[in-house]
Design goal:
Order of helices and strands: HHEEEEEHEEEHEEHHHHH
Strand order of the largest sheet: 3-4-1-2-5-8-9-10
Shape: globular
Strand content: 15-25%
Radius of gyration: 21 Å
Number of domains: 1
Structural class: alpha/beta
Length: about 290
């Protein structure tokens, strides 16, 4: 095989991968629209299974996707029911089960997904988002790190929150709803031969440093964040992270059109790598919770 033939082969492989993502977008969208017509807009479990299948194809295997679960924290906080919870069982294998009910500690949760059809009740979605935003990770952890025993959170992570994702059929999404979510995935259907997924991302966080703060220092002001990092002798290159824009993760086809699902894959997994591992689990905080009268 000469050099030119080898280069052509490599280009063909890259093109096939791009086309596979575009095909996957169409397949997911067709299933959702057909399911909506056959089952009606109220059959939530059908939608959840299709979207869960999509996330199962793009997430690393260390993540587990739980359907219809509640998130709790050690301060008696509890979320509304979450359609899909993406959690890391490698470090926090704690799910409190009561029959078919699943209660997952906030420290284990990397992302939450709300699955809707073409009818979105803004009031219920706002309540859903408000309950999630109230949940707080605890800091009373004890764990061995590479060079020490820590009795609190790591230097680069003081408090976290889940990445919030809305999945629905194509429709006009209000600004108030968009503000609740970091990503909005809309299955679009011009006709059965032209189906795809629109992806809208949170524009409030323009670069990786903004995302880093939002996901690892949730509702912590800049001064307290810097003090925590300094005390732990950690190093955060703010200037370098600020240079990396989320637009750099956009994938385009030969006609310069966005390949939405592949773009979302790279963006979501980059954010998951910013979190990397969940919060060190605060056993004593949950002991106190369940020891109350």
């Amino acid at each position: 095989m000469d050099e030119k033939e080898s280069d052509n082969r490599k280009l063909k492989v890259v093109e096939n991968i791009r086309e596979n993502y575009q095909s996957l977008e169409g397949m997911i969208s067709k299933q959702l629209f057909m399911g909506n017509e056959l089952h009606g807009p109220t059959t939530g479990s059908f939608r959840e299974e299709i979207w869960a299948g999509l996330f199962g194809q793009i997430l690393p295997k260390k993540f587990v996707i739980e359907q219809s679960a509640f998130i709790i924290d050690s301060e008696e906080g509890i979320s509304k029911e979450i359609d899909l919870v993406i959690m890391d069982e490698m470090y926090t294998p704690y799910i409190f089960r009561y029959g078919k009910l699943k209660f997952i500690p906030i420290e284990a949760v990397a992302a939450v997904v709300e699955c809707k059809s073409q009818s979105i009740d803004e009031r219920s979605v706002k309540e859903w988002g408000a309950e999630i935003k109230k949940l707080r990770t605890a800091k009373e952890s004890v764990a061995r790190l590479a060079n020490m025993i820590t009795k609190g959170p790591t230097g680069t992570q003081l408090s976290t929150r889940p990445i919030r994702i809305l999945c629905a059929l194509d429709q006009n999404i209000s600004a108030e709803i968009k503000e609740i979510f970091d990503f909005v995935l809309l299955a679009a259907n011009k006709n059965l031969e032209k189906t795809y997924i629109k992806v809208l991302s949170n524009t409030a966080f323009n670069n990786l440093y903004e995302w880093f703060k939002a996901l690892n220092f949730y509702e912590v002001n800049e001064a307290d964040m810097e003090e925590h990092i300094d005390k732990s002798r950690s190093r955060i290159d703010k200037a370098e992270l600020e240079k990396i824009k989320m637009d750099e993760y956009q994938v385009l086809d030969k006609e310069s059109r966005p390949i939405s699902l592949m773009t979302f894959n790279f963006q979501l997994n980059q954010l998951l790598m910013l979190i990397n591992n969940p919060m060190l689990f605060p056993h004593r905080a949950y002991v106190k919770l369940f020891s109350k009268d």
